[in-house]
Design a protein that fits this description.
- It is a single chain.
- The protein is globular, with a radius of gyration of 15 Å.
- Helix content is 60%, strand content 0%.
- The protein has one domain.
- The protein is an all-alpha fold and 137 residues long.
- The mean pLDDT is 88.
């Protein structure tokens, strides 16, 4: 937004600790890392949680996919897309609707939207997500 001269928050609307960039919002932001940690831990994938000072989001994604078995890769790709999308939507709610950052709200959105994706045929995501993340939690 800054590159295009559009109004934008001076700092990340999720953590208020750093300049807002896509790399920050999706991976290095404290809030985003809390979301990733919570979800990946619940799935038994704590080893791939983005770390502070990680490089680009795309590099973390590629490394994460390579670090799991082939049977999990398609589901993990879907999960990473889903979580990144929900973090982005939550960021937009904070900026445009005055929402307050809430890790649990993003987690619930991932579970709910993940259920919809699974109904739409994302069977690899279903194998990864719905068997480990109870909807009511």
């Amino acid at each position: 937004m800054a590159k295009r001269g559009l109004p934008h928050p001076a700092a990340c609307p999720l953590c208020d600790q750093a300049e807002e960039t896509i790399q920050h919002i999706l991976g290095s932001c404290v809030f985003a890392r809390q979301v990733w940690t919570l979800i990946l831990h619940e799935l038994g994938l704590s080893a791939i949680v983005p770390q502070p000072g990680s490089t680009r989001f795309s590099n973390w994604w590629c490394q994460s996919i390579k670090s799991v078995g082939k049977n999990l890769r398609k589901g993990l790709n879907s999960l990473i897309l889903l979580v990144a999308w929900e973090i982005w939507k939550h960021r937009n709610a904070c900026v445009f609707e005055g929402a307050v950052p809430c890790v649990q709200q993003v987690r619930r959105a991932v579970v709910e939207e993940g259920s919809v994706w699974c109904l739409a045929g994302a069977s690899a995501l279903q194998d990864l997500l719905l068997r480990r993340l109870p909807v009511g939690s």
